[in-house]
Write the structure tokens for this entry.
Amino acid sequence: MVHSLTCNGFGEQTYIVELGQGQLLVVDPGMATREERDAFQALCSRLKARPTEVLLTHAHLDHVMGCHWMFQTFGLAPRMHPKDAPTYQQGPLAAQMYGISMDPLPEPCLDLKEGQVLVLGDVTMEVRFVPGHAPGHVAFVCHEAGWVLGGDVLFQRSIGRTDLPGCHAPDLVRSIEQQLYTLPEETVIWPGHGGPTTVGEEKALNPFVNAAGSGLLQREAEG
């Protein structure tokens, strides 16, 4: 089962996935305050489980603000795609630019790659490479359960930003069309911000990238 916590001033969604046998996967730990960390601990207690793995869809500031605490508290370093290592390293500088404080980031494990199959407890996920919002952005697809932890690629009726360093709008279009819209329409997308949606809903109704090819970003990328 997938659980979410809304974290930090950016409204980032941190995901907690039950792996069975008292184990939890944490994706994009954004916990930045004592209250958010207490809420995380309370969820762990309610589930009677403990985090055993931390994965990052990408390394933008709002998705890594809890990495230090996860490492300090549970001894878990984040795993991520190597192409997002520069983004991760720039986290403290980004925090300064936004005028917010952030703990030093632990050394990550740069072992995620396109097409990789992760078997974590009772959950099996495919790693899909979905750049565009960030150079090393990945999505985690659980085909058996019919969901995707998609980070900041595709939101409910929206898409990830393409105006940040390392963004590339044509890549984002290709990632959505080739890596997400090829999944079954009933697949649930758990995004990095906001509530869940489905592949079918976004193919039909997303104003930026849709199945008809008439989305605003699609036309911009073609131009």
